[in-house]
Amino acid sequence: MKKKGFTLIELLAVIVILAIIAMIVVPIILNIVKKSKREAFLNSVYHVIEGVKLDAVINERELPISYTVEDNQITPSVSFQGKIDAYGEIIIDKTGKTKVEIDNGKWCARKEYSDNKLIVSSSPCTDNPIIIRDLATEIKWGEGLLVTSSATSKNSQIINYEFKIKKDNQVIDSYSSEANEYLFPFEKFSNHEQYQIEVEVKDNQNHVKATNTTYEFSYESMITRYVIVEVLEHLDGNGAAINELEFLDASNNKLTYTVGPVYDSTTNGVPVYWNNTSYWQKEHLNDGKYSYTSNSDGGTTSTLFIYNSTSTDKWSRFLVDFGEEVELKTTHLWTGGNDRRQPKQMKMYRYSLEPDAYFTSTYIQSRNMSLPCIYDRTFTSVYTMPTMDTNYFIYPKDTKKPIINDILTTRNHNFLEIKADVTDPYYSSGMKQYRFSLIKDNENLDPKNVPWSEVQYTNMIQYDLSNLEEGTYYIYVEATDNASLTAYKTSKAYHFLKKDVNSRYLIMEVYDHFASNGTVITELEFYDQSGNKLTYDIPSIYDAATNKVPYYWTSTAWPKTRLYDGKKTYTSNSNGGSTSTIFNYSSTAGAGKWTRGVIDFGNQKNLNDIKIWLGGPEGRTPKEVNFFISEEENIDTIYNNNIKERDNRNLIKVTDFIMSSDVKTVTMFERNNVKIYTFEKK
Q1: What is the pLDDT of residues 373-386, one digit of tens each?
Q2: Alpha-carbon gap, residue 326 to 87, rounded angstroms
Q3: Are the C-beta atoms of 87 and 62 separated by less than 8 Å?
Q4: What letter does residue 647 receive in the DSSP assignment?
């Protein structure tokens, strides 16, 4: 039978039908792919939003805050699920609401603070590629208000920043610069007033973007009666001169002062011409004249220090006394002139007490650096004309007192070390004392009701965890500086647990020794929670002094079996008596040699008590004996990682014995109720 094929018309019909199907299906498929990519981008943006919100909470970021997204990187650094090859920013306002604008080159995802969901449109989000990450304001002690704007751009170059200060929408100062920060002097601001800080950013493609913030300028002046002024060395000529020195109070009124004790290390007494009314006497420091024209007679204004000095370490100090406590706000210092007697460095120190009999010898005739420095100016060039330098003694009200940045905890088996990380912005006033408290189940105590520890003169304290009940704890810290200003901080919640030591293997470390040529342990015993003595063996050991097992480990003199033979004394050093076992033999005392071994109980045991006998007349007393348990159960792995290498990976320290050199006879030391303590943030 003859087979019949397709005709040309039939083939054309099939092709037409397939083309029609393709015309219908392909756009649908492409649309599905496009929609899928769009949804993937949208989901990535949501993941990023959740990531930055979580970061703001966990890291206690100060709000408002801006996060910049650029090529799978987020600044500040944030961990988030997935990837996002895009560019943009997310801003979290003070109430926690988010504003979003992220562009991946195809779509733009944006959301205003009031929106509940993202709106997706075609890229670009905006024709303006500039993103301003933040606008920060920071007090620079003694200098002014530092305004910083961090901007970035995907495809252009930032070329200019214009900073403005406004009061009631009127510009009171502005500055244009290529730098992204500008220091506005304090004289531009009045106390207890509100200002608008604005920045306008420009790029090389004529794009402009602006942002602003409201700044409430509220400060406190320094309160003091005394200031110590120091002049250190000089840059040129044969001495150092001060033309004029003025102090202003909180109302910008010029303060009168008298000059008290003075000392010049060049003369070992008063400076040359200090009391000479014809030349540069001390009265010229406060006569309202800022320049002089005649070097031959000192003109009418300058006061000379360190005259005829050729040494590089000469200095002068004198006391300024305002007669009573004043609110010190500003100082004006004039130096320089045609005689080129330019000081190299000047410092001022705040003195808070009434000068006593030892004041002059301690702080004037000695270059004592323990006082809080309130002014520090280094001159790098010679002023050939009298030039004024301004310094401000004002502080934001919320940062004048000490700042407790963080409360740090470190656990050493049953001891908890608490440390306060404190900054004292009051011109380095310095910290005077600390108090701590560990409170169970209460994070809202008023400081006056806290059962504080005794005063600590360092920023740390230790607590014995074995005395604590299990539960939730809060750490309270009080920090007081030398100006008697006090700060308080309460930590986040910590959860404290006690766990039984239930393990087959215990790692023992014998570290160093005080005298003679080795370390001796006479006897070592372990007990469970019922008081039963545990049998054990030491199958793996490494001695850093021999790079193998300890000397005599398998001998008849001091073998390992003597560690658990029940005999607690020995009398003969020549043959080891009948009980002691020696480690680190022939090691020089204090050389840091150590021995580590695996104690094997045969199976898991609930370890509760440890007794160790050591010490003797020849002085072979170890400095430390430490005990750990391992999270690893393979004894070969423990040996390679933790015994031979003295590495604490996967080890948990359960207790230690810290010895002293006065253990001259065999003495028993004991640790009861050995536990694993955890003290961790909830």
Answers
A1: 889 999 999 998 88
A2: 54
A3: no
A4: -
